[in-house]
Amino acid sequence: MMTRQIHPPRVVFIVFMVVFGCWFARAAQGQGTPGQPSVRPPAAVANPAEPGAAPSGAAKKALPLVMTEIVQTQSLSKILEATGSVAATRLARVASPGEGPIIDCRVREGDLVKRGEKVLGIGRNTAAQALLAAAMAAFKEQEQDLKRVQQLVESGAIPGATLDTSRSKFESARAQVAKARESTGDYSVAAPWDGIVSKVLVRDGDYVAPRTVLVELFDPHSLVIRFSVPEVQATEIGENMAVTAQLDAYPGKSFQGRVRRVYPELDSRMRTRTAEAILADPLELIPGMFARIQVTLQSVPEAVTVPSEAVIVTPKGERIAFVVREGKAVRRKIETGIEKDGRIQIVKGLQPGEQVVVAGNEKLKDGAEVQVRGGTGQ
After folding, report:
1. Which residue stretches of 27-69 are H helix?
2. What is the 3-state secondary structure (H, E, C) of 122-148?
3. Does domain 66-74+302-375 have CATH number 2.30.40.10?
4. What residues contact 159, with CB distance under 8 A and at least 6 apart?
5. 4, 102, 251, 301: which has the fewest C-beta neighbours closer than 10 Å?
6. What is the CA radius of gyration of the chain?
7. Domain coordinates of the chain in residue numbers?
8. 221-300, what's its fold?
9. Does domain 91-217 have CATH number 2.40.50.100?
C-alpha cells in the first residue's frame, strides 16, 4: 500500500483559505466589511438620577435623622404613694382587778365616758369572806400573844427583845385583816380618761378571772392615719413632710396634712417602716377608715428636666445624653435625680436651653453629623 504525502505549502494555503472564508462570512452579516474595522455601538452611560443606577463615589452618605427638645426648668417633686388606715394612738383595754361575777355593766359600744366614770362592777365571792375570817382569827391570836408577852417582859421572865418580835407579828396580822376586808367589797371599774367605748367584751352575770379584758375605749383626739413605707424609701421619709390624703369615706376630696411620727425600726416580717400622719383641718374620722397617702419626699422648684427618652444607660451603668451643636451630636455624661410623669431631673451634665436628642439616639456616636427632624428643637 502506498502512503500519500502532503506538502507544507499546500497545508498553509488550505489554512489561509479557511480563515479568509470565516472573515468574509462575518463581514457579510454586518459585523464589518473587508478592509474596514468593525464599529461597535457606544456603551450606555449610567445616570445617577435614574433608579437602579450605581452610586457615584462622590455622592454624600445620608445623615441620621434625630428628634430633639429644648432642656427646660420646672417644679418637680418626688412623691411616695402608700395606703393606710385610721387608728387611735391612745386606747385602753380595761381589765378585771379580781375574780368574780360582772354586775351593773353601764356602757355599750359608742358611749362617751368621762375620766373616773364607773363602767361596770365585779361582785366578790364567798372565798373573799373566808379569807377575811381567817385574817380576823390570825389577828386575834396575835393580839392575845402580844398581851401575854407584855406581861412576861414586865415580870422579867423573858427579855424585852421578845416584845418587839411579838408586836411586829401583831401589826402584820392587822394589815392582813384590812386587806381582806377591802377585798370583800365589790370592785368598781372606772374609765381611765375621757374617751369612746369601742368594745364591751362582757355582760352582766359573766364570771371573770383576774386581768380579764372587760372594756376597750379610745381617745377620739388621738386618731391618726397610719401607713407603711417600703424599705427602699424607709430612709427618705421624715417628720413634718407634707401629706395629701384621700379617704374612701369622703370620695372626690383631698386633705392636707403632715407626717407626725416615724417609727424607729422596720417590721421584721414585712420589711416596711411605719409612719403616722395627721390632717391640718378637723375632720370626723373613725378607726379603721381606709386612706390613700401621698408624701412629698423631695421638692425642687427649678429643676432642669428632660424627657425620659433622652437618657441612655450604657452597659457600664453610666447615664448619658446627646445634645446637638452645630449640626453634630455631642455626648454628655449626666447625673439624674427625681423621675416623675415621663421627665427626669438632670443634676449635672446639661444646661437649660440646650438641644437634647430624644429620638434616634440609640446608635449615635460622639461627633457624628445629624439631621434634626421634628421636635421642639428643629
Report:
1. none
2. ECCCHHHHHHHHHHHHHHHHHHHHHHH
3. no
4. 153
5. 4
6. 52
7. 66-74+302-375, 91-217, 221-300
8. Elongation Factor Tu (Ef-tu); domain 3 (2.40.30)
9. yes
